[in-house]
Specification:
three-stranded antiparallel β-sheet, about 20% strand, about 750 residues, alpha+beta, eight-stranded antiparallel β-sheet
């Protein structure tokens, strides 16, 4: 069965893992195919990873800007708040929120709102740009694959081609098993052509093959494909030409340029004259009432009848005449549908193979030495056309009768076909090419599609034995796998292949345009091209039912399996991910994350205090303030500074990212309008020095209502270490060189003094 008719995953051995899609080259085409579930998880991870990488990029920008703007000189509040935001905003979104709130606060209560805007708005814009950029990047990270269907690569689990010898070996199996399957394929290709080979085709309905449809050119003013005089028109005929279809881009055979081939199909059709090529004939009938049936016979060549082997008929085709005797009409009423028949002649004529497969042997006017010939007969004796038809094949101008509209009480004239039958003649050709040869040497001559004569002409285009074996297999698939030429379409689907029947109700035919026959041929040609698209897919899929395998043959040469190992198809059951795009996302993102994690340590390593030194292969100047400010602007360090300002100054690991308090810390005083930390009690400020016997002297106790403590002295703002308690206090003060003026008045600081031993 065709790939169009089943979704059974067991028929498709899809390659799971890495492979190269040669459409994009060796590097950009590196592809990873996963199941839809695993692919969805990977895509979701990539989106999250891009978002996390954006956070790292924001942190790196904050570090650079914080360092760039850092200054050891006194600054205003805007500077410090901006530095703190850059240090502690965890992401661009967080920075956007913090900066927006800060700008709003300064606008409402700041003394210089204009300056506040100039200080914070550039940072806000940067945060917005970074946030938006990485949000969009996260969304587009899913573009490493597509949402609906992906190109997947088939493995060579099933590799076989239809074989004509096996088809006819068992007539019973051929008629009961193969023919129903064959007819189903033809119907499927016709249905696909109706969906995907029309100007209004929707790509969503055609996501099966690598191309929704194969391109072809339409030449509607073509000359007659046969000798002059047998065509009704000298220059209003039709040529349908695919041009050179690439095996990789159009047929889905994944291969580098050196292993590709080109394939071309050309159909040339024209309405034929019937005058002089038909005659009346009274056909004997075994009935006493109707001893003879009036027929019309067409003479376009000798018939090769299959009913009476060894008997040749001088005529090509016959149809009943349009007889009007009442008794005859009662015996054989005209059918209310079209009657169509397609007869083929295989080139070269009078060859043993063509004798077995040809339906007729064309007369000289129709004979072609480089093409197969098909005659298509259309009879519509029982059809009533609501309007006259000027189309050359459906031509209807004879008045058939009248239809009465009983509601409007009006009569309508209906028309009948002009003759008992009309004829289209078509030539079918195909061509193989090697695109790696010079232009004038790359193609075999155009030849009949069904002919197996002189296959070496095509194979000579490939020089190596491996390539010749591979192309012999490809040619077998194309010749015996294409089961839907124009002759096959009409021979199998009959009138169901006619587009005109879309406007047929019972025996009443709606209006038809003057180029209806050309539309019909294009529809059949589209079904033929759908068969070409499906031929190589059938070769790598298991047939259904499995008994159909008896009509297939496997390749004998390993090189012939080249096409089976490299067939592409679209599937919504799998996800094919571009490895290059995924690698760029992972590598760039990983670099940003690693640099974010290590930038502070790297800067600390580079800027060790002291002399110039080589660290990490970089010679730097001893600049420490910017890094020190970065560290102290962290939330944990700001927390320490706040508590130390309140007197809770017993901490360890002060230079680390997380300082550790040695005792209890303060609590908020409960003032909702101006919350502050409660000052530390006097006893909590006493601490022993690690030097032997050292004593701390605390000058005064900070009053709870005093916002800022005045400290003085050469040592710590609050403590002076004394080597021994035996020395008088005044002497200790003199020895430490504290000769500053007396502390401020009691309105600002406490005047009491205490000695802690």
């Amino acid at each position: 069965m065709s790939a169009l008719t089943t979704s059974d995953p067991d028929r498709y051995n899809v390659h799971i893992g890495f492979w190269t899609n040669w459409t994009y080259g060796k590097v950009h085409g590196a592809t990873l195919t996963l199941t839809r579930r695993d692919g969805g998880l990977l895509i979701a991870f990539l989106a999250l990873f891009v978002s996390y990488s954006g956070t790292s990029f924001w942190r790196l920008c904050c570090f650079a800007l914080h360092r760039l703007c850092s200054s050891s000189q006194p600054q205003d509040g805007r500077y410090h708040q901006r530095q703190v935001i850059w240090r502690n905003a965890t992401s661009a979104n967080d920075g956007t929120w913090r900066l927006s709130r800060t700008i709003w606060a300064w606008q409402r209560g700041g003394r210089s709102p204009g300056k506040a805007c100039s200080s914070f708005i550039p940072a806000l814009l940067l945060a917005i740009v970074i946030s938006a950029t990485f949000s969009v990047a996260g969304i587009f990270s899913s573009r490493v694959t597509t949402a609906t269907a992906n190109e997947v690569l088939f493995s060579a689990g099933h590799c076989a081609a239809w074989d004509r010898t096996l088809m006819t070996a068992d007539f019973q199996n051929f008629t009961s098993l193969y023919l129903p399957n064959y007819n189903a394929r033809v119907s499927t290709h016709l249905s696909y052509a109706a969906r995907c080979y029309t100007p209004t085709a929707s790509p969503e309905d055609c996501q099966i093959y690598v191309k929704p449809s194969l391109p072809f050119s339409v030449i509607s003013g073509a000359p007659c494909p046969f000798q002059n005089g047998i065509c009704r028109f000298a220059s209003s005929n039709l040529i349908l030409d695919t041009g050179f279809l690439d095996s990789h881009h159009h047929l889905g055979i994944n291969a580098p340029p050196k292993d590709r081939f080109q394939y071309r199909v050309v159909n040339h059709c024209a309405p034929l004259v019937t005058q002089g090529y038909m005659e009346d004939f009274n056909k004997p009938y075994n009935n006493t009432l109707f001893p003879e049936i009036p027929m019309v016979r067409f003479f376009y060549g000798q018939s090769a009848s299959r009913v009476l082997p060894g008997t040749n008929f001088s005529f090509t085709y016959e149809v009943p005449a349009n007889f009007s005797i009442d008794t005859y009409n009662s015996f054989q009423a005209a059918p209310n549908d079209y009657v169509i028949s397609a007869l083929g002649s295989i080139w070269p004529v009078n060859n043993s193979d063509s004798d077995l497969t040809s339906d007729f042997f064309p007369r000289e006017e129709l004979s072609r030495d480089n093409a197969d010939v098909v005659l298509i007969f259309l009879s519509s004796l029982g059809i009533q056309f609501v309007q006259q038809v000027d189309d050359a094949w459906y031509s209807a101008h004879r008045v058939y009768g009248f239809l009465t509209d009983t509601t409007a009480m009006k009569n309508y004239t209906v028309y009948a076909q002009d003759g008992p039958a009309s004829v289209l003649g078509c030539t079918l050709q195909h061509q193989l090419c090697n695109p790696n040869l010079p232009l004038k040497e790359r193609c075999e001559p155009l030849r009949g599609i069904w002919s197996d004569i002189q296959p070496e002409t095509a194979l000579d285009l490939w020089k190596s034995e491996e390539d010749r074996a591979a192309m012999a297999w490809a040619r077998k698939i194309l010749i015996e796998g294409i089961d839907c030429t124009i002759k096959d379409v009409l021979g199998t689907a009959q009138t169901a292949a006619l587009v005109a029947r879309n406007g047929l109700y019972k025996a009443l035919q709606g209006p038809l345009p003057a180029d209806q026959w050309q539309r019909e041929v294009q529809h059949w040609f589209g079904a033929s091209l759908a068969s070409v698209q499906d031929a190589f897919v059938q070769a790598v899929t298991a047939p259904t039912p499995s008994d159909m395998e008896q009509f297939r043959v496997k390749p004998q040469d390993r090189s012939a399996q080249r096409f089976c190992r490299n067939q592409k198809l679209l599937s919504a059951r799998y996800s094919s991910i571009n490895v290059l795009g995924m690698s760029i996302i992972l590598v760039v993102g990983a670099l940003l994350v690693i640099l974010d994690w290590s930038i502070e340590s790297l800067a600390d390593c580079i800027q060790k205090p002291g002399k110039k030194r080589r660290c990490c292969c970089i010679r730097v100047r001893p600049e420490r303030y910017a890094l020190l400010e970065w560290k102290t602007n962290a939330i944990e360090q700001l927390h320490r500074l706040a508590h130390e300002g309140a007197g809770y100054d017993s901490w360890t690991h002060l230079e680390d990212a997380i300082p550790i308090p040695c005792g209890g810390l303060g609590v908020v005083d409960g003032d909702a309008t101006h919350p502050r930390l409660k000052p530390a009690p006097i006893e909590n400020s006493k601490s022993k020095s690690t030097s032997g016997g050292a004593t701390n002297i605390v000058f005064g106790e900070e009053h709870p209502d005093v916002p800022k403590k005045h400290t003085w002295g050469a040592q710590s703002p609050q403590h002076i270490e004394i080597a021994s308690t035996a020395v008088p206090i005044s002497e200790a003060i003199d020895n430490h060189g504290i000769n500053d003026p007396a502390p401020p008045s009691a309105s600002n600081t406490s005047t009491s003094s205490s000695v802690s031993t």
